[in-house]
Amino acid sequence: MTPTVLVHRDQELLAKAVAARLVTRIVDAQAARGSASVVLTGGGVGTAVLAALAATGARDAIDWRALDVWWGDERFLPTGDPDRNETGARDALLSHVGLDPARVHPMPASDGPDDGDPELAAERYAAELRAAARPEDHGPVPSFDVLMLGVGPDAHVASLFPEMPALYDERPVVAVRGAPKPPPTRLSLTLPAIRAAHEVWVLAAGSSKAKAVRLGLSGAGPVQVPVAGARGRRATLYLLDRAAAAELPPGIERIASP
Ligand SMILES: O=C1O[C@H](COP(=O)(O)O)[C@@H](O)[C@H](O)[C@H]1O
Protein backbone atom coordinates (compact mmCIF):
# COMPACT_ATOMS: atom_id res chain seq x y z
CA MET A 1 0.00 0.00 0.00
CA THR A 2 1.46 3.38 -1.00
CA PRO A 3 1.95 5.74 1.93
CA THR A 4 -0.23 8.82 2.15
CA VAL A 5 1.77 12.04 2.27
CA LEU A 6 0.48 15.14 4.06
CA VAL A 7 2.45 18.37 4.10
CA HIS A 8 2.02 21.18 6.62
CA ARG A 9 3.61 24.62 6.57
CA ASP A 10 6.19 24.26 9.32
CA GLN A 11 7.10 22.13 12.33
CA GLU A 12 4.79 24.01 14.69
CA LEU A 13 1.74 23.48 12.51
CA LEU A 14 2.80 19.90 11.79
CA ALA A 15 2.94 19.13 15.52
CA LYS A 16 -0.50 20.65 16.11
CA ALA A 17 -2.01 18.80 13.16
CA VAL A 18 -0.53 15.45 14.23
CA ALA A 19 -1.78 16.02 17.78
CA ALA A 20 -5.29 16.66 16.44
CA ARG A 21 -5.10 13.53 14.28
CA LEU A 22 -3.97 11.53 17.28
CA VAL A 23 -6.93 12.69 19.37
CA THR A 24 -9.32 11.57 16.63
CA ARG A 25 -7.63 8.22 16.10
CA ILE A 26 -7.52 7.42 19.84
CA VAL A 27 -11.12 8.51 20.42
CA ASP A 28 -12.31 6.41 17.46
CA ALA A 29 -10.47 3.32 18.73
CA GLN A 30 -11.80 3.80 22.25
CA ALA A 31 -15.34 4.21 20.93
CA ALA A 32 -15.01 1.01 18.90
CA ARG A 33 -13.16 -1.21 21.38
CA GLY A 34 -13.12 0.55 24.74
CA SER A 35 -9.37 1.16 24.66
CA ALA A 36 -6.57 2.30 22.36
CA SER A 37 -2.82 1.86 22.07
CA VAL A 38 -0.13 4.17 20.79
CA VAL A 39 3.60 3.79 20.30
CA LEU A 40 5.65 6.92 20.95
CA THR A 41 8.82 8.10 19.28
CA GLY A 42 11.58 10.26 20.65
CA GLY A 43 13.13 13.10 18.73
CA GLY A 44 12.22 16.68 17.93
CA VAL A 45 8.88 16.32 16.14
CA GLY A 46 7.70 13.37 18.23
CA THR A 47 8.15 15.35 21.43
CA ALA A 48 6.64 18.50 19.88
CA VAL A 49 3.52 16.46 19.01
CA LEU A 50 3.16 15.37 22.64
CA ALA A 51 3.57 18.97 23.84
CA ALA A 52 0.93 20.10 21.32
CA LEU A 53 -1.41 17.38 22.57
CA ALA A 54 -0.88 18.53 26.16
CA ALA A 55 -1.73 22.09 25.10
CA THR A 56 -4.97 21.37 23.25
CA GLY A 57 -8.33 21.34 25.00
CA ALA A 58 -9.29 18.46 22.70
CA ARG A 59 -7.12 16.19 24.85
CA ASP A 60 -10.11 15.95 27.22
CA ALA A 61 -11.92 13.89 24.56
CA ILE A 62 -9.49 11.03 25.26
CA ASP A 63 -10.20 8.53 28.03
CA TRP A 64 -6.62 8.57 29.28
CA ARG A 65 -7.19 5.65 31.65
CA ALA A 66 -8.06 3.46 28.69
CA LEU A 67 -4.91 4.15 26.71
CA ASP A 68 -1.86 1.90 26.46
CA VAL A 69 1.39 3.75 25.81
CA TRP A 70 4.42 1.97 24.38
CA TRP A 71 7.73 3.15 22.94
CA GLY A 72 9.33 2.38 19.59
CA ASP A 73 12.85 2.80 20.91
CA GLU A 74 14.81 3.99 23.86
CA ARG A 75 18.27 5.14 24.73
CA PHE A 76 19.64 2.63 27.28
CA LEU A 77 20.37 5.13 30.05
CA PRO A 78 19.40 5.44 33.73
CA THR A 79 15.82 6.25 34.75
CA GLY A 80 15.13 9.97 34.50
CA ASP A 81 18.12 10.70 32.25
CA PRO A 82 17.16 13.73 30.12
CA ASP A 83 18.25 11.86 26.98
CA ARG A 84 15.79 9.02 27.52
CA ASN A 85 12.80 9.22 25.20
CA GLU A 86 10.62 8.32 28.19
CA THR A 87 11.81 11.40 30.11
CA GLY A 88 10.93 13.69 27.20
CA ALA A 89 7.50 12.11 26.79
CA ARG A 90 6.70 12.35 30.50
CA ASP A 91 7.76 16.00 30.64
CA ALA A 92 5.85 16.95 27.48
CA LEU A 93 2.61 15.04 28.09
CA LEU A 94 2.42 11.92 30.21
CA SER A 95 2.87 13.66 33.56
CA HIS A 96 0.04 16.06 32.72
CA VAL A 97 -2.76 13.61 31.93
CA GLY A 98 -4.53 10.93 33.94
CA LEU A 99 -3.01 7.77 32.49
CA ASP A 100 -3.28 4.44 34.29
CA PRO A 101 0.36 3.83 35.34
CA ALA A 102 -0.11 0.11 34.66
CA ARG A 103 -0.82 0.94 31.00
CA VAL A 104 2.33 3.02 30.49
CA HIS A 105 5.07 0.72 29.21
CA PRO A 106 8.47 2.43 29.08
CA MET A 107 11.36 0.41 27.78
CA PRO A 108 13.67 -0.68 30.63
CA ALA A 109 16.37 1.70 31.85
CA SER A 110 20.02 0.80 32.29
CA ASP A 111 19.61 0.98 36.08
CA GLY A 112 16.56 -1.32 35.92
CA PRO A 113 16.31 -4.98 36.91
CA ASP A 114 18.55 -6.28 34.11
CA ASP A 115 21.88 -5.39 35.66
CA GLY A 116 22.74 -3.01 32.81
CA ASP A 117 22.38 -5.77 30.21
CA PRO A 118 20.53 -4.41 27.15
CA GLU A 119 19.92 -7.88 25.70
CA LEU A 120 18.07 -8.91 28.87
CA ALA A 121 16.21 -5.60 28.85
CA ALA A 122 15.11 -6.22 25.22
CA GLU A 123 13.85 -9.68 26.19
CA ARG A 124 11.97 -8.15 29.13
CA TYR A 125 10.21 -5.67 26.86
CA ALA A 126 9.41 -8.38 24.33
CA ALA A 127 7.80 -10.41 27.14
CA GLU A 128 5.71 -7.38 28.16
CA LEU A 129 4.52 -6.97 24.58
CA ARG A 130 3.78 -10.70 24.26
CA ALA A 131 1.69 -10.58 27.44
CA ALA A 132 -0.36 -7.70 26.01
CA ALA A 133 -0.98 -9.36 22.63
CA ARG A 134 -4.43 -10.91 22.10
CA PRO A 135 -5.21 -13.97 19.97
CA GLU A 136 -6.60 -11.74 17.22
CA ASP A 137 -3.23 -10.01 16.94
CA HIS A 138 -1.80 -13.23 15.45
CA GLY A 139 1.69 -12.47 16.71
CA PRO A 140 3.93 -11.59 19.63
CA VAL A 141 3.00 -7.90 19.84
CA PRO A 142 -0.31 -6.02 20.05
CA SER A 143 -1.78 -4.50 16.87
CA PHE A 144 -1.05 -0.96 17.97
CA ASP A 145 -3.59 1.60 16.77
CA VAL A 146 -0.94 4.19 15.94
CA LEU A 147 2.82 3.86 15.90
CA MET A 148 4.73 7.11 15.43
CA LEU A 149 8.28 7.28 14.13
CA GLY A 150 10.69 10.14 13.79
CA VAL A 151 13.24 9.74 11.02
CA GLY A 152 16.91 10.66 11.11
CA PRO A 153 18.82 12.34 8.26
CA ASP A 154 20.38 8.89 7.69
CA ALA A 155 16.85 7.43 7.29
CA HIS A 156 16.91 5.59 10.62
CA VAL A 157 13.64 4.98 12.43
CA ALA A 158 13.29 3.98 16.08
CA SER A 159 16.90 2.81 16.75
CA LEU A 160 17.17 0.89 13.46
CA PHE A 161 20.18 2.42 11.75
CA PRO A 162 21.18 1.65 8.14
CA GLU A 163 23.06 -1.60 7.56
CA MET A 164 22.97 -2.65 11.24
CA PRO A 165 22.15 -6.26 12.28
CA ALA A 166 18.89 -5.21 13.97
CA LEU A 167 17.41 -4.81 10.49
CA TYR A 168 17.67 -8.55 9.90
CA ASP A 169 16.28 -9.53 13.30
CA GLU A 170 12.90 -11.25 13.49
CA ARG A 171 12.53 -10.80 17.27
CA PRO A 172 10.18 -7.95 18.19
CA VAL A 173 12.67 -6.08 20.37
CA VAL A 174 16.45 -5.92 20.13
CA ALA A 175 19.40 -4.37 21.88
CA VAL A 176 21.39 -2.05 19.62
CA ARG A 177 25.07 -1.53 20.33
CA GLY A 178 27.34 0.88 18.51
CA ALA A 179 24.58 3.17 17.22
CA PRO A 180 26.07 5.92 15.05
CA LYS A 181 23.99 8.51 16.91
CA PRO A 182 24.68 8.84 20.66
CA PRO A 183 24.10 7.20 22.98
CA PRO A 184 25.53 4.05 21.39
CA THR A 185 23.46 1.55 23.38
CA ARG A 186 19.75 1.47 22.71
CA LEU A 187 16.66 -0.73 22.64
CA SER A 188 14.41 -0.84 19.61
CA LEU A 189 11.35 -2.46 18.15
CA THR A 190 12.29 -4.23 14.94
CA LEU A 191 10.58 -3.85 11.57
CA PRO A 192 8.31 -6.91 12.11
CA ALA A 193 7.02 -5.37 15.36
CA ILE A 194 6.57 -1.96 13.72
CA ARG A 195 4.61 -3.58 10.89
CA ALA A 196 2.15 -5.04 13.42
CA ALA A 197 0.67 -1.58 13.89
CA HIS A 198 -2.60 -0.70 12.16
CA GLU A 199 -1.22 2.71 11.28
CA VAL A 200 2.40 3.85 11.04
CA TRP A 201 2.96 7.60 11.04
CA VAL A 202 6.37 8.84 9.88
CA LEU A 203 6.98 12.35 11.23
CA ALA A 204 9.60 14.63 9.71
CA ALA A 205 10.36 18.35 9.81
CA GLY A 206 13.26 20.35 8.43
CA SER A 207 15.44 20.23 5.36
CA SER A 208 17.90 17.77 6.95
CA LYS A 209 15.17 15.11 6.65
CA ALA A 210 14.25 15.75 2.99
CA LYS A 211 16.61 13.15 1.52
CA ALA A 212 15.53 10.46 4.01
CA VAL A 213 11.88 11.16 3.20
CA ARG A 214 12.58 10.92 -0.53
CA LEU A 215 14.40 7.61 -0.13
CA GLY A 216 11.66 6.24 2.12
CA LEU A 217 9.14 6.85 -0.66
CA SER A 218 11.35 5.71 -3.54
CA GLY A 219 11.16 1.94 -3.21
CA ALA A 220 14.55 1.63 -1.47
CA GLY A 221 15.38 -1.46 0.58
CA PRO A 222 14.94 -1.30 4.36
CA VAL A 223 18.49 -2.40 5.17
CA GLN A 224 19.91 0.67 3.42
CA VAL A 225 16.90 2.90 4.18
CA PRO A 226 15.15 1.70 7.35
CA VAL A 227 12.26 4.17 7.03
CA ALA A 228 11.32 2.45 3.76
CA GLY A 229 10.51 -0.71 5.74
CA ALA A 230 8.17 1.00 8.19
CA ARG A 231 4.66 0.25 7.00
CA GLY A 232 1.34 -0.10 8.80
CA ARG A 233 -1.11 -2.96 8.22
CA ARG A 234 -3.90 -0.60 7.25
CA ALA A 235 -2.16 2.68 6.54
CA THR A 236 1.18 4.43 6.41
CA LEU A 237 1.22 8.21 6.69
CA TYR A 238 4.14 10.52 6.04
CA LEU A 239 3.32 13.66 8.02
CA LEU A 240 5.79 16.34 6.96
CA ASP A 241 6.54 20.01 6.98
CA ARG A 242 7.35 21.76 3.70
CA ALA A 243 11.11 21.60 4.23
CA ALA A 244 11.06 17.84 4.80
CA ALA A 245 8.82 17.44 1.74
CA ALA A 246 11.11 19.48 -0.53
CA GLU A 247 12.58 16.46 -2.36
CA LEU A 248 9.57 14.16 -2.74
CA PRO A 249 9.99 11.74 -5.65
CA PRO A 250 8.03 12.50 -8.80
CA GLY A 251 4.58 10.96 -8.92
CA ILE A 252 4.02 10.91 -5.17
CA GLU A 253 0.65 12.47 -4.44
CA ARG A 254 0.57 14.85 -1.55
CA ILE A 255 -2.15 16.59 0.38
CA ALA A 256 -0.98 20.03 1.48
CA SER A 257 -2.46 22.32 4.09
CA PRO A 258 -2.05 26.11 3.81
O1 LIG B 1 17.63 8.99 18.30
C1 LIG B 1 16.51 9.09 17.87
O2 LIG B 1 16.29 9.80 16.72
C2 LIG B 1 15.09 9.70 15.98
C3 LIG B 1 14.90 11.01 15.18
O3 LIG B 1 15.04 12.13 16.03
P1 LIG B 1 14.96 13.63 15.49
O4 LIG B 1 15.27 14.51 16.68
O5 LIG B 1 15.99 13.78 14.40
O6 LIG B 1 13.58 13.84 14.98
C4 LIG B 1 13.92 9.38 16.87
O7 LIG B 1 12.85 9.08 16.09
C5 LIG B 1 14.25 8.21 17.79
O8 LIG B 1 13.13 7.85 18.58
C6 LIG B 1 15.37 8.60 18.65
O9 LIG B 1 15.75 7.63 19.62
From TrEMBL:
Indicate the enzyme's highest-level EC class: hydrolase
**Which segments cross the bilayer?**
none
From the UniProt record, list the reaction(s) this protein catalyses.
6-phospho-D-glucono-1,5-lactone + H2O = 6-phospho-D-gluconate + H(+)
Coiled-coil blocks: none
Q: Per UniProt, which keywords does this protein have?
A: Hydrolase
Q: Where is the Glucosamine/galactosamine-6-phosphate isomerase domain?
A: 10-235
Which InterPro entries does its entry note?
6-phosphogluconolactonase_DevB, 6PGL, Glc/Gal-6P_isomerase, NagB/RpiA_transferase-like
> Pfam families, per this entry?
Glucosamine_iso
Q: In which pathway does it act?
A: Carbohydrate degradation; pentose phosphate pathway; D-ribulose 5-phosphate from D-glucose 6-phosphate (oxidative stage): step 2/3
Q: What is its EC number?
A: 3.1.1.31
Cite the GO molecular-function annotations of the record: 6-phosphogluconolactonase activity
Per the similarity annotation, which family is this? Belongs to the glucosamine/galactosamine-6-phosphate isomerase family. 6-phosphogluconolactonase subfamily.
> What's the stated role of this polypeptide?
Hydrolysis of 6-phosphogluconolactone to 6-phosphogluconate.
Task: Indicate what this protein is called per its UniProt record.
Answer: 6-phosphogluconolactonase
**Originating organism:** Actinomadura yumaensis
